[in-house]
TrEMBL record:
Broad class of where this protein is predominantly found: mitochondrion
Lineage: Eukaryota, Metazoa, Spiralia, Lophotrochozoa, Mollusca
Any single GO BP term: mitochondrial electron transport, cytochrome c to oxygen
Pfam families linked: COX5A
GO annotations of cellular component type: mitochondrial inner membrane; respiratory chain complex IV
Record-linked InterPro entries: Cyt_c_oxidase_su5A/6 (IPR003204), Cyt_c_oxidase_su5A/6_sf (IPR036545)
Membrane topology listed for this record: Peripheral membrane protein
Protein name, per record: Cytochrome c oxidase subunit 5A, mitochondrial
Molecular functions per Gene Ontology: metal ion binding
Native species: Magallana gigas
Length: 161
């Protein structure tokens, strides 16, 4: 029953599109009913294509971003392969402070820490050395001060017992 209802809805939508095309307004009609299977994969587009370079940092002020833009930036940084520069981390923390979102700042620091991977013992102390004064200025506690360096319910690996 649902299948037949969906088929009828699809046919009526296609009829409406064909009527609009015949009336001389093809772009408005066809744009709304394009099947996803025929569009192919979306190309990789980014809101922040040069976030790792200083040029984007100079052109934009992360501290003035609203919550949505800040989360988009953090998602982009999290999806990137490398560890972000300390300057970018500082600006994101300032943005979190301006948006009064302490939890987002904490989660961002956790993401940055985990992005170090196997070299976490080398990268994290350097990053903390660089962003430490800014964190003190903004009133943001470090992960170690909050007890987030190690998960709360962390259990020993059974293979190592």
């Amino acid at each position: 029953m649902i299948r037949s209802a969906c088929k009828r809805i699809g046919l009526s939508a296609l009829n409406a599109v064909s009527k609009q095309i015949k009336s001389g307004c093809p772009s408005a009609a066809a744009a709304g009913l394009r099947p996803y299977s025929e569009t192919g994969p979306r190309p990789h587009t980014s809101l922040y294509p040069v976030v790792s370079e200083g040029t984007w940092l100079e052109k934009n002020n992360y501290a003035q971003f609203d919550g949505w833009e800040l989360r988009q930036l953090i998602n982009f940084v999290a999806a990137d392969d490398g560890v972000p520069e300390p300057e970018i981390i500082i600006e994101v923390l300032k943005g979190c402070r301006n948006n009064n979102d302490y939890a987002l700042a904490t989660r961002f620091l956790e993401v940055v820490r985990l992005k170090g991977g196997n070299k976490m013992s080398e990268t994290w102390p350097y990053i903390m050395q660089e962003i430490g004064p800014t964190m003190q200025e903004l009133g943001i506690s470090t992960l170690k001060e909050m007890g987030y360096e190690e998960p709360e319910l962390w259990l020993e690996n059974v293979d190592d017992m």
